[in-house]
Structures are given as C-alpha cells and as structure tokens.
Amino acid sequence: MAAGVRLTNAQAEDEMRAAGFEPIGSYQGVDRKWLVKCMTCKEELERTLSNVRAGKGCKHCKGLVVDAAAARAEMLAAGFEPLGEYPGPNASSSVTTWPPVIKVSLGMTSAPISDAC
Ligand SMILES: [Zn+2]
User: Fold this and answer.
1) Are 36 and 72 in a shared domain?
2) CA 38 to ligand 1 centroid distance, Å
3) How many domains does the chain fold into?
4) 89 in a domain, yes or no?
5) Among 107, 110, 106, residue whose Cα is nearest residue 98
6) Taking the alpha carbons of 45, 37, 40, 6 in that order, is the dihedral positive or negative?
7) What is the spatial distance between Cα 6 and Cα 8, in angstroms, rounded to a whole number?
C-alpha cells in the first residue's frame, strides 16, 4: 500500500473480520489498540491492525490468558494470596500485573514482580 493512504473504517473492519475478529470499538489507526471480539472463542481483546497483519492471533485461543480460577491457583502456587478479584483477561494480559497481593509465606504485601531484578 502506498504511503499516506489511509484505510477507511469499513476497509479496516473488513480486514479485521477477515482475520477472524469482529470489531467492537471504532478504528483509530493501524497501530492503535482496537477492541475486537474473537470469532472463535468469543472473547473480547485488544488488537492493533498491524498485529493482525503480522499474523498475531487471539491470545485466548493460544492459551495465553487464563481464567480467574486458574489465575488464582497459579498465584497461590507461586506463594501469593490474591486480595481482590481477578480483573479479567481484558484488564491485563498477565497475572504479574495483578493488584497488590499478600505473600502468603511472609504475610507481607508486595507485588509479585517487585523483586524480580
Ligand atoms: Zn480466541
């Protein structure tokens, strides 16, 4: 595609649908996060059109996002007691960004990645 040519919303939506995602939000630009729904697993997620063009599929389908019960079990297994509800896969893509948790073994509040380096 020639430089400077902008996709229309309809073109962008067609491209997103062709990749297997139903657009929910409005198209803002190829590198802007776009709320879409995976047609395979029906989960909502944010994708950029450039991600989709690069062949990046649905993180839910790939098993990169765990459900609340599995996320909690994973946190407990790592020694953390979640204080709040799992925010859901749309709030953050990883349990490492979960809000404050208690380190069960020490009874201290810390973030799971605070001492990673
Ligand atoms: Zn999916």
Assistant:
1) no
2) 5
3) 2
4) yes
5) 110
6) negative
7) 6
- Hey, what's the torsion of the CAs at 101, 104, 105, 111, to 10 degrees? -10
Per-residue pLDDT 10s for the chain (117 aa) are 445 568 899 999 999 999 999 999 999 999 999 999 999 999 999 999 999 999 988 988 887 666 777 777 888 888 887 777 766 655 544 444 555 554 444 444 555 554 545
Q: What letter does residue 6 receive in the DSSP assignment?
A: P
Cα(101) to centroid(ligand 1), Å: 29
Element (H, E) at 45: strand 44-47
What stretches of the chain show up as alpha helix (H) in DSSP? 9-18, 49-53, 68-77
- 72 and 104 assigned to the same domain: yes
If you measure from the C-alpha of residue 89 to the centroid of ligand 1, how many angstroms do you get, rounded to a whole number?
Answer: 12
Q: pTM of the prediction? A: 0.53
